[in-house]
Amino acid sequence: MMMYTRNAYMPIATYPExxxxxxxxxxxxxxxxxxxxxxxxxxxxxIPYMSSGLGDFFVDVPGLARAVEQKSKAECHRLHALVQEHxxxxxxxxxxxxxxxxxxxxxxxxxxxxxxxxxxxxxSGETMVAQDMAQAVVFGSGRPTILVPPSARAAALKHIxxxxxxxxxxxxxxxxxxxxxxxxxxxxxxxxQDEKPLNGSNLAGxxxxxxxxxxxxxxxxxITLGERSIDEALQDAALTEGAQILAMGGFGHSxxxxxxxxxxxxxIFTQVRLPVLLSH
Length: 280
What we know:
By secondary structure, this protein is α/β, with parallel strands linked by helices. The protein contains eight helices and ten strands.
């Protein structure tokens, strides 16, 4: 029988800001739980020369650009050491650095993620670069992407929650999540009752029965929004049930974008309280 190794990918931008170390460490620990290898790519910025308009007499534009580039490269080296030290001997880690111009990092990360089984993204709601990276990889890579907040606790995935609306993309998220479920694990099937019209009744129960027939313990759960947003309701239910990860993909491009960035009317970033697997 052919042996299969799961390869996880973690892209980290170092410009204009860097995600918090706590999130990087949490994502590294999560990779160890998934097994296989972790491939970390840090991106060092390359700033093209631009004239200040006054020449370089008053402002040393090239000097400022080189200083920023040097700081970015130093962060790449620091992050490699941080991940390697935290991983220890229990996880095979491969670190590389790529150079990209501002604005080129996101496309590069999404393209590189296609060559791996899963992308692990260190998450911080206060760091814009984390939201930008999440959007790029979720929508551009075609691979399952897990947002890992600093609060995530690494342990074998014995319990996953799936946001289920019976749609095609939700089915994709389910498949991606089941591939990570530990032997003997269970699934909480979450269906939001009053958020949008659903194509059928008892969708959660139907999926739970299907999973049970495959030998996977499953529990159907119907959610009502009330005054909560969709992301709040799903995370509340997942945490109440004790799930270790929430998988979702049935809410389309705009829904996932709202989940990452927060609703436009709220003007705040969404708080990710447990690891979230997004499939698109």
